Amino acid sequence: MRGRYVVLILLLALGCRSRGAPDVPPPPSGDGGVAVVWEGSLGREVLSVPAALNDSEVVVLTEGGGVFSLGAGGKLRLLFETDEPITFGPVVSGDTILFGTFYGYLLAFAPDGRMLLRDSLGSASAVRGITVCDGYYVAVEDGHLFATGDGGVRWVGYLGDWVLFPATCLPRRGVVVPTISGRLLMYDSSGNLVWLVEGLDYLPSAPSYDGARIAVASPEGRVLFLSPDGLRETEFSISASPMGEVLASEGRYVVATTSGRLVSPGEWEVEVPLDAPPLLTDVGIVAVGGGLLRLLSYDGSVMDSVEIGEGEWLSPLPVEGGLIVVSREGRVLFVGGEWHPAGGWPTVRGDAARRGVPTSNSSAL
Questions:
Q1: Smallest Cα–Cα separation from 91: which of 56, 50, 47?
Q2: I want to staple 273 with a disulfide (CB 3.0 to 4.6 A). Which of 1, 105, 290, 356 is the partner?
Q3: How would you classify the pairing of strands 86-93 and 76-81?
Q4: Are 68 and 42 in contact, with CB atoms under 8 Å apart?
């Protein structure tokens, strides 16, 4: 594995190569209602969950280093390819597409493939998280937290513990980062340690923040809520280990579990087949499992169900008019229709768009 990546790094001088888009069959037309409007194929394995590029496009990383744009109108196009050994991303900040590499580099690309930034974070460890926060980027690399932007590292936080997930941005306050031993640390925008909370068990995901409270769930089924100052407020127990992070927005909290349940701590719990972590939007909870489901966020009842066929589906993402749904095998669906009584399309609630998730390359680390 390492030998192959060394060869790839030596090919850096080749830069990014632009190529044509894959052959995509003409999209079928939709006729109203929430339904699959069109379907296409990338013809290669997808290594990342989608990230929103703009209102009508998302980007994904594919096998071979291809970065594709998937458009609401059915246009699938290869933006560029890179030989860098990507382990994290994409994360989008404005017109910049960010990735982290196996050898500890933070990369920034323009949509046309131009490399805007290639910052070494100072060690040869894989980047395990990237977070956009208040105009700068925070990268997690094993036991370190790096703040970078405008070229060069601004400050480094030494965590003294392994980190497997990205930091969480608290706008105008700083970032909170979880460690593998169950600690949460908050740093301000200058790199000062503001507070430390210990004894949270192993943390399986990044914490969530809705502007009022920080929420984090442990594998044992503990869901803990803290104030932005690190004070413990409330704790709930759920019936199984969480799948992904707590969905949090404006006082609404939902946890997906590995046993196939959605739980709103202290409020409701429903059984739902889940292939991937769900999404909290302004039109409800969108989940993929045995189809695409839309559920009401205040009681978990199913509003819509759309058959999407078999596949290793990733978490969906809203675009203009509906949702883009991508499978690990490279299938791409657009689910559109009547989402709002007055028109419009779903929008994401919560803070997850500021950070990404590891690519499937990172599972080998």
A1: 50
A2: 290
A3: unpaired
A4: yes
H-helix segments, 95-161: none
Task: Give the pair of three-digit tokens for residue 107.
Answer: 């990369």
What is the CA angle 127-133-137, rounded to 5?
35
CA dist 88 and 165 (Å) reads 10
- Mean pLDDT, residues 171-178 taken together: 92
Boundaries of every domain in the chain: 28-58+277-350
- Rounded Cα–Cα distance for residues 133 and 209 (Å): 13
| Listed residue (157, 338, 349) closest to 250, CA to CA | 349
- The angle formed by the CA atoms of residues 228, 90 and 74, to the nearest 5 degrees, is 120
Taking only the tens place, the pLDDT of each residue in 32-82 is 468 899 999 999 999 998 999 988 899 999 999 999 999 888 889 999 999
Tell me how far apart the alpha carbons of residues 268 and 261 are, in angstroms, rounded to a whole number: 10
Q: How far is CA 90 from CA 47, 53, 148, 199, 347, in A?
A: 10, 10, 17, 32, 19
Given a cut of 50, whether residue 281 has pLDDT beyond it is: yes
Angstrom distance (rounded) from CA 247 to CA 262: 10
Question: Per the structure block, which two tokens stand in for 142?
Answer: 């094993």
Query: Is 90 exceeded by the pLDDT of residue 355?
Result: no
Q: How far is CA 182 from CA 195, 203, 217, 264, in A?
A: 14, 5, 10, 23
- 46 in Cβ contact with 60 (< 8 Å): yes
Instruction: Kindly state the tokens that stand for 333.
Output: 């669906």
CA-to-CA distance for 272 and 216, rounded, in angstroms? 21
Task: Output phi, psi for 352, to 5 deg.
Answer: -65, -25
Q: Please, what's the largest Cα pairwise distance for the chain?
A: 56
Q: Which two tokens stand for residue 230?
A: 């690190």
C-alpha to C-alpha distance for 165 and 183, rounded to whole angstroms: 12
| Tokens 């982290």, located at residue | 100
